Amino acid sequence: MSPGGRRLVSSAVGGLTAAAAILVVCPLLLIFGFLLYQGVAALNPDFFLHLPKPVGEVGGGVANAIVGSFIVIGLAVAVGLPVGILGGVYLAESSDRRRPWVLRFVADVMNGVPSIVFGIFAYTVVVIPMRRFSALAGGFALGLILIPVVLRTTEEMVRLVPNALREAGLGLGLPEWKVSLRVVIPAARAGIITGVMVAVARIAGETAPLLFTALGNRFWHQGLDQPIATLPLQIYAYAIAPYDDWHRQAWAGALVLITLVFLASLAAKVATRGRTLAR
Amino acid sequence: MAIDSPAGAVALDRPSRPPAAVARGRRGLGDRVYRGLILASVWMVLVLAAGLVAALAWESWPAVRAFGFRFLVTSHWDPVAGEFGALPFIYGTLASSLLALLIAVPLSLGAAIFLAELAPGWIRPPVAFLIEMLAAVPSVVYGLWGIFVLVPWLRDWVQPPLGRTLGFLPLFQGPPYGIGMLAAGLILAIMVVPYITAVSREVLLAVPGSQREAALGLGATRWETTRIAVLRYGRSGLIGAILLGLGRALGETMAVTMVIGNRPEIAASLFAPAYTMASVLANEFTEATSDLYVSALVEIGLLLLLVTVLVNGLARLLVWSVGGPARGARA
Amino acid sequence: MTTKLPVLGMLLALALLLPAPPAAAQMLINGAGATFPYPLYSKWFEEYIKVDPEVRFNYQSIGSGGGIRQITERTVDFGASDGPMTDEQLRKAPGPLLHIPTVLGAVVATYNLPGNPQLAFTGPVLADIFLGKITRWNDARIKAVNPSVPLPDQPIVVVHRSDGSGTTYIWVDYLCKISPEWEKAVGRGTSVKWPVGLGGKGNEGVAGQVKNAPGSLGYVELAYAVTNKLPAARIQNAAGKMVEPTIESTTAAAAAAARTMPADFRVSLTNPAGPEAYPIASFTWLLVYKDQPDEARGRALVKFLWWAIHDGQKHPAALLYAPLPASVVKQIEATLRQITYSGRPLLAAR
């Protein structure tokens, strides 16, 4: 092929891949556009402050679901954060021995497990023995999703801390645990928090594991050992129902949810600018 | 003092490691507690993972014993008669995921190549950002959009003309419900595109610059450089990215449940309703009224776990082979 | 700024983990199950807050199958089902379970056709549609029953339940009675192997499907059809008359059974004799343990049940459910008095 022909092919392919990139981005704009279009109408103070109304009646809100989501996410973080961070530190500090690969492998495997399987596990080990659907069970299931993400991010971030910092601490006579807790982890703090925010953004939208654990609640939560309403569950219940008012509330709820998730992801991105291993 | 030694100067390039003296030295109480906590966390993760598999295996044992291998190859799902065959769900999961990949892979690879190689510099960050935001959209929101936007569009604008023009193929026969395998495949495609794109882009970026420079030095055009030097080098990583997308698609629950039609039947047509392993769990788990029914469902969960673990494990191996094992928390 | 962020984070976490807003003084009683009576139950639980502000009833409509399973596993305080539990299911429960009828309802055939015509069906025609033997709306047999209605040449999109459902039980119970072929091929249960059709989750899901998809035909509880402005077909009853689903025809369906009500209230009302009876009606039951595990909750629950069968019966009519026959109410009163905690009846003599 002539040089001109080859250049033509190159430009054509450039155009094709650009088209692919546009096609890839389109759904996001479509989805967000529809959410805005359909959901904004239903956004009013009632929506954020009131409880759901009885079936078939118009109005009401998802206040308990929004609060419930925060609570369940908080529980998941309480469950997953310490385990994830400590595990990540372990991996970062002992990468030259053989045993750590087991943990890394298990964490990566856990990352790929469908969330509904965690839901079944949580039902079996929390709901049945407790004889009750609860926020705790929901937090446990979401915590399982959170652990591998936090673990791997922590490992990456702790590895980035320069050895000189650690050696300086040890040189000053600090015991090893103080060096880790007061020197290394704080140095990696921003990255770790970012990892947590990424994980939170992910579990904020999870519905499947909550189907069998948190169950749902039409009223304010009455304690962590009771069923609790969450935003994704409420959106699902409203979406598959026939009532138009519920559909509007589902769109509005989805708008709120996606905004929260985007904000968390955005914050995580902004915080990690310049902190990754590669460029 | 470690800071002055040549070893300390070199250590800035290496990831953080405790100096050997402390590693084998004596430990105070604080250190012992700290070590203990760390080990406890490590064991906790391992125990949880093992517990997950054990719990699933234990609960599914009655079904395994009752049906054996038949469970995987029969299509009869009859809770009244206590007969359970999971083939329709396995088929539904595989078919919808493969359909999704068919649609998503060309688009994702194209977008990844665009972002990594061919795009002008100023375009890359915003487009990459938009694609990553797509990955953050929750599944239930996709499902909501699917029910009220995608399905009516398919039912009114896509399936009737497809049925009229290509209806001689078994793939496009049957009444245009809107809901069904095609809707599920499309939604899954939209959902896995950002993952495949992001990981492919990282794989391509990890290809050493020397490869590109060598090709350019030989007079290749941009596309030829990409094709000869980058794609070939990163091939296994790209396959890994695709497999990661597959792993995601296999386990996807909510969006698929909302648009697939919930019909445990194997049909040749894309217009027909179907059922996936994750969907049947979402719909029927809290209400399976007999022990065997529960056990059969948990066995499906176990199968789903095994399949996704295998696919994800393979994917990571392939991705690591190009870029190295540091790509931890990405996918 | 060094250590403030984690401290703030921990404070936030603690704040979230604190039990509850001031409403924590209330008792929360959890129930789950049938979607069939959900519109009525959600109204009841809202109204009952005025009667007893100290208690909240949280009801999740996950389907009758779910109600049966969760009360058997004791993860909820009461279950709800419109398909009565089988003997085997009752044996599996850790204690004696009572079926308390709360209201009567009708399962209707609802559909989505242009112009929203009023259709009529015979039992055998419905059975054959759901068996997949009648596939188009302008089939001769449908036309025969609806001579003056213009029926389109469109495929029938059958919609059934994808979850374990008492509404399904009522529907297939009826089909079993009028179609020996259905009884042999499919049978009855809360979750059956459907020959044709799409699955919707809950009465809500089926109504939503029918509403969205032109040409569909599904079965839902009457309240769901009415509140969503979906039509309800007339069905031919055992006496040969085309009957519309209304409060009166539902009440007529229960008339014969009310006289011969068994002690455990498990009775089928489908295809009854009686010229005005609607053929696909049923009681719906709340499932409670005869021996309550917790005194305070047990007492609150029994008091609610007492209210439901008396004052609560004012509300069903607005949602097109039929109230319980008076003789049945008397029988339920006697049963409620048998509910105990540690051997002592929870209901004081009234």
Can you summarize this structure?
The complex is a heterotrimer of chains A (279), B (331) and C (350). Helices cover 72% and strands 1% of the residues of chain B.
Structural overview:
The complex is a heterotrimer of chains A (279), B (331) and C (350). Chain A is mostly helical. In chain A, 74% of the residues lie in helices and 0% in strands. Chain B folds into 2 domains: 7-53, no CATH class; 88-323, MetI-like fold. Chain B has helices at 6-11, 20-24, 29-67, 70-73, 87-118, 124-136, 139-166, 181-206, 209-217, 222-233, 235-251, 254-259, 277-284, 291-323; strands at 77-78, 83-84. The relative contact order of chain B is 0.14. The model of chain B is unreliable at 1-14 and 326-331 (pLDDT under 50). Helix content of chain C is 38%, strand content 19%. Chains in contact: A-B, A-C, B-C. The interface between A and B is large, with 110 and 106 residues.
Per CATH, the architecture of the largest domain in chain A is Orthogonal Bundle
Continuous helix count of chain A: 12
Query: What can be said about the biggest beta sheet of chain A?
Result: none
Q: How much beta of chain A, percentage-wise?
A: under 5%
Largest interface: A-B, 110 and 106 residues
- Rg of chain C (C-alpha, Å): 22 Å
CATH class of the largest domain in chain A: Mainly Alpha
Distance from first to last alpha carbon of chain A: 37 Å
Low-confidence stretches of chain C: 18-23
Order of strands across the biggest sheet of chain C? 2-1-3-11-4-8-6-7
Report the sheet-strand fraction of chain C.
15-25%
Helix content of chain C: 25-40%
User: Looking at this structure, what is the CATH superfamily of the largest domain in chain A?
Assistant: MetI-like
